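ok posting inputs for the calcium ion job
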Amino acid sequence: MEDCADRSDERNCPMFHCTDGQDIVAHLRCDNVANCSDGSDESGCAAGISTQVANFICN
Ligand SMILES: [Ca+2]
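and the output
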């Protein structure tokens, strides 16, 4: 299994382009955590949870 979360194989992963110019791995989109500094990876997803708050939740 590839695990892009460790960033070692990020180049092989589909990327999502944030509207602020950042690139994040595509699986971080719509995960209820704002990964782009402007939260654009969570915009356009099914609305619900405040992504700004969810960003503070750690595993
Ligand atoms: Ca996200």
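notes: Residues 49-54 have pLDDT under 50 and may be disordered. Helices lie at 51-54.
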